[in-house]
Amino acid sequence: MVYRCRIELNEIAPKIWREFQFHPDVTFHQLHKIIQSVMGWENYHLYEFHVKEKVIGLPDPTFADMEDREVLNARREIVQKHVHEENTVFTYVYDFGDDWQHTVTLIKIDASTSDPAPLCLDGARGCPQEDVGGVWGHQHMLEVLLTPNHPERDHFIGWVREGYDPEHFSCEEVNQELERQKDKLIPKSLVKRPVGKKPVKLTKSALNKHLKQLNSDQLIDLVKACHGASKDMEKFLAVRILGDEAVESLFQEYCKKVEKEFFPERGFGKLRLQEAKHAISEFEKLTGNARYALELKLVYVENGVDFTLSYGDIDERFYYSMVSMYADIIDQVNEDKTAELFDEFEERLEAVVSKTEGIGWGFHDNLANLHAQIRWI
């Protein structure tokens, strides 16, 4: 049995739509991944499904006590449990900043089809660009690109992804991507595993033994292959080989990643705090540089303070995140027995507290209390 659905991106004309099918026993998180491939999104942002007054997404345990609604876990909720009648309509929301609203309709339950693999059946028009600014930003971008002498045209041409065509859609290309991810997009119970074989894992001892057996040319080839395997591996090797120069370059790159969540080059900051915190964590893992990681955390708090000074009070969740990050910074400063971190960041740490005078939610008082705990004061 498969579900055949139609999905439409709301508020855009002519319609951007797809028809696709999938096994009803997938989780909503798997359905999210299917929709990402079917529509042409790049899975950069958070999402939610709204089904019969229920919200299904990825709850954040950090802020669970602050949620004023129940969010069911998309990794655990099965689609068929909540959607089981033809003509059922529900909503898929992608990117809470751009707020892409999709209407999904279950148009047919096909009991004659047994293949559980998802499949795209039809569709029209290309998916909008990520981070374009929602429906208005997308329509504005298209208007600019279609106007030869528009003052913003060169900017957008340099910004859109290479080969972007708002009218292009290919079922074949989508199905190639769905096939590539097939095992991740069908119910786990239906994934065919090799019988009697245990998962293969490369242990440190096995890696060490293998490396000792390689000659210099083979080692060089292995490192080259690792370099080309992923962007993260490329960055990791750059740090190991180029040292401080690479760390400094990566710091500038990740600093921009943090800053753009508050003050992007275009439009209004989306405050995707998890994205900014993930960038900090990723930088720390790639470089192992605690000093620069601390500065990224401070950049996070400084931008948060500047954001609320620019746009007014935000909410308790926002301020809790800022205070939590500031507490991490103070802990790291206190653990430095040389006091070098305190000497370097003293003025900025104090400035953060001073600038928050008058901000609500107890924000200033919480920061001031943390600042008073610095052992060097």
From TrEMBL:
<feature type="domain" description="Plasmid pRiA4b Orf3-like">
    <location>
        <begin position="2"/>
        <end position="172"/>
    </location>
</feature>
<dbReference type="InterPro" id="IPR046153">
    <property type="entry name" value="DUF6155"/>
</dbReference>
<dbReference type="Pfam" id="PF19652">
    <property type="entry name" value="DUF6155"/>
</dbReference>
<dbReference type="InterPro" id="IPR024047">
    <property type="entry name" value="MM3350-like_sf"/>
</dbReference>
<protein>
    <recommendedName>
        <fullName>Plasmid pRiA4b Orf3-like domain-containing protein</fullName>
    </recommendedName>
</protein>
<dbReference type="Pfam" id="PF07929">
    <property type="entry name" value="PRiA4_ORF3"/>
</dbReference>
<dbReference type="InterPro" id="IPR012912">
    <property type="entry name" value="Plasmid_pRiA4b_Orf3-like"/>
</dbReference>
